[in-house]
Amino acid sequence: QKEVEQNSGPLSVPEGAIASLNCTYSDRGSQSFFWYRQYSGKSPELIMSIYSNGDKEDGRFTAQLNKASQYVSLLIRDSQPSDSATYLCAGSGGGYNKLIFGAGTRLAVHP
Amino acid sequence: EPEVTQTPSHQVTQMGQEVILRCVPISNHLYFYWYRQILGQKVEFLVSFYNNEISEKSEIFDDQFSVERPDGSNFTLKIRSTKLEDSAMYFCASIGREGTDTQYFGPGTRLTVL
Question: Cβ separation of A45 and B56 shorter than 8 Å?
Answer without folding.
Answer: no
